Amino acid sequence: MTPQRFQKISQIYHATLEREPEQRAAFLQQSCGGDRDLRHDVESLLASDKSAEAFFSSKGMKEKPKRLRGEPSQSLVGRTLDNYQVLSFLRAGGMGEVYRARDTKLGREVAIKVLPAGFASGSDRLRLEREARAVSALNHPNILTIFEIKEADEHLFIVTEFVDGETLRDRIRKGRMKLAEVLDVAIQVASALSAAHAAGIVHRDIKPENIMLRRDALVKVLDFGLAKLTDPQSTITGPEEVTLQHFSTEPGLVLGTSVYMSPEQARGLPLDTRTDIWSLGVVLYEMIGGHLPFAGATKSDVIVSILEREPPPLEDDAHEPAIELKWILHKALRKEREERYQTARELLGDLKDVRHELDTQTTRGRSIKPELSDRTTRSQRSRLFALSLAVIIIAAIALALYKFVGRKQPHVVLPAAKVVPFTTFPGRELQPTFSPDGNQIAFAWNGEKRDNFDIYVKLVNTGTPPLRLTSNPADDLFPAWSPDGREIAFVRQSGSDVSIFVVPALGGPERKLYSGTSAFLLLYDYGNGLSWSPDGKYLAFSGQRSPREPNSIFLLSRESLEARQITTPPAGFLGDSTPAFSPDGKVLAFVRGASSRDVEIYIMPATGGEPKRLTFDNR
Hints:
The chain is elongated. It folds into 4 domains: 3-64, no CATH class; 80-161, Phosphorylase Kinase, domain 1; 170-359, Transferase(Phosphotransferase) domain 1 (Transferase(Phosphotransferase), domain 1, Orthogonal Bundle), CATH 1.10.510.10; 382-613, Neuraminidase (6 Propeller). It is built from 14 helices and 27 strands. The protein is α+β, with helices and mostly antiparallel strands and 619 residues long. Helix 7 runs antiparallel to helix 9 (274-289), helix 7 (179-198) runs antiparallel to helix 12 and helix 11 (323-332) packs antiparallel against helix 12.
């Protein structure tokens, strides 16, 4: 379709809407003359408009065209096309009518998509054939399999696998979906798009009607009838990237279902794979909330909403999604595609991360929630144990102060705590620690790509993004604020090689303080690996003199950069870890583990001496 053709369709469409309902049929007949395709295109636009009911009920238009009602224009049920016996009508769409049929040669049920009569020749037929060849090359479990393309009795049709199930639209109409079901559908659709995009195919019409849910929960993405082949090397480059002209649509033609169209699609701009990411974001939003993020009384209102408005927050709904999903939706529905997910694979990774997190949870107090797990995973046990152990360490330090300093702490009644999310990033955020003034939190995060951990700092009670302090390809972990809040010490680990660095809290050049080896196994499970002395002169850490030795506690002098070993675990023990200075710097608490399940808390003078065991939970 040329821009001139589109402009003519648009002019007649808007001019028809300006007329009274009883005048529209005559005006449309006069404007289109004998051009049936032109009238068909205008009627399709009118059918999607709010005023369509009045239009089709006016004189001369007693009924909507059958195709627009989802009915076959001329039923083929009972007929035989080549070796396919047509059994029943399934649905009608923009690219033709779909029937259930039986392959009499192979004895299997199939689906056939019959092209409208006007499409059986010329460029439209070539487009359909290219679509079939392109999609049939995608051997993916979540993409509808195309068997062949045939012509019989003046009917051109595509033969595909028959999907025994329901559309996602049918499922949404039945009621609210559980979060586990939402994620399962979204992950499978994202997987299909990832494969299609890698082959240079853009779907451009992702919507619940084009997503089938088989009875065994397998998802199938249907109808690549609006697909466009793009250069696989340039699908995430600039929006003006030249595409392969296999069956592309010219800029200026607005295709796709309006409520699922991306902003660039609504503007009639050249499209790339990121338009599918937007559409999947809309579908994901609808599955969670039960309603669309962008709506309007007319198609024009919907497009304005897509271009100018933000979707309503889902937390205003009675069913709040997981906070990680809110972050995914926010990124998938960015109006500027450069700010959106750049690939379906990236979106797929985040969706899988959320599902993994939900699988490891034991309960969620939401209407949309995963099923409770019957068993606790190893990572759950580690997290729960780490939390419990952190509380015990704090209690141990308080006890140490009482015994060594001799001061009685006054009884303080703390107000009830209110737990609120501090970050909503994908991936994993570890080892949060407050700055001395309590206004910032440093933490380790493996980033949007989840490739390695770096140190970040984020202000408390603000919406500002975090400040990234490190960008080394190794893992940077265990941030620890200096007592004056000006520096942050951290551990950089690459395999068994471990170094300790400091970096300015506001960003700047790093400085290495120590290099050595350490398994750091206990550190990952039980807590932070560094502790500053209150005077800022020493850093306590857990390390090894050699890989064969258990972890011990060391004191690192900031002045001389010399590390002095102050604990020696008994033979056969895993080692000592998680050092923590008391507020006055005189006492050091740490964890000593005989095994991964047999750990106890010890305290000792910070200057050195015999450790004293405080807990006896595993005697």
